[in-house]
Amino acid sequence: MFSESKKRAFGLISSQEDAKNAVQKLQDNGFSREQISIIGPNSCGYECQKDFNLSPSSDNALISGLAATDVGSVFATGAMANIVANNAVGFLNKGLMGALESLGLPENVAQFYSDGVANGDFLLVVDGTEKEIDEAGSSFDNIPIQSWKIYRQPSDALSR
Q1: Going edge to edge, which strands form the sheet with 36-41?
Q2: How would you classify the pairing of strands 36-41 and 62-68?
Q3: Is 72 inside a domain boundary?
Q4: SS3 for 48?
């Protein structure tokens, strides 16, 4: 039986409000909490981070205050929180750029997104089938997302 390959899309959003709107739009369009992640600057504060808590359970729902070597202190929610938690030593040693590379991003793209978070942007990460990811990208009419890119998920990144 043929199963559609999983994709992962990445995009930078410059404001907290736009990031929250993007998450809400995705949920309104049927995306589950497990398919949506946000990585953002820890400086946005606890209430901001709590707004992005996308995990249905309390364990690894929100990882805050991670001191990455390349971007400073960040928070991660959703599936990315689990991925970061499971690879905490690598994240701390290689930074956000290394974590993004481990998800299958080319080095230059991982650097671009890592630099965006270091400059205060929010990194939106969406998991799904190719069709779901295409629908997600087309649903962001009024939300400015920079460099919305889609990649095939490496098989080892699928296990959470």
Answers
A1: 62-68, 72-77, 36-41, 122-129, 6-13, 146-152
A2: unpaired
A3: yes
A4: helix
Residue 39: closest CA among 13, 18, 17, 60: 13
Q: Which domain holds residue 55?
A: 6-153
Neighbour-count burial of 63, counting CB atoms closer than 10 A to its CB (0-12 exposed, 13-18 middle, 19+ buried) = buried
Tell whether 160 is covered by a domain: no
Neighbour count for residue 130 (Cβ, 10 Å)? 13
Average pLDDT of 128-156? 83
The pLDDT > 70 percentage for the chain reads 64
| Structural domains of the chain, count | 1
pLDDT over threshold 90, residue 159: no
Per-residue model confidence as pLDDT tens digits over 90-120 = 566 677 787 788 777 888 998 899 899 889 8
Asked if 31 contacts 128 with a C-beta cutoff of 8 angstroms, the reply is yes
Is residue 159, in this structure, part of any structural domain at all? no
pTM of the full predicted structure? Answer: 0.80
CB distance 124 to 148 below 8 Å: no
Residue 158 in any domain: the answer is: no
Gap between the Cα atoms of 11 and 124, Å rounded: 5
Q: How many residues does the chain have?
A: 160
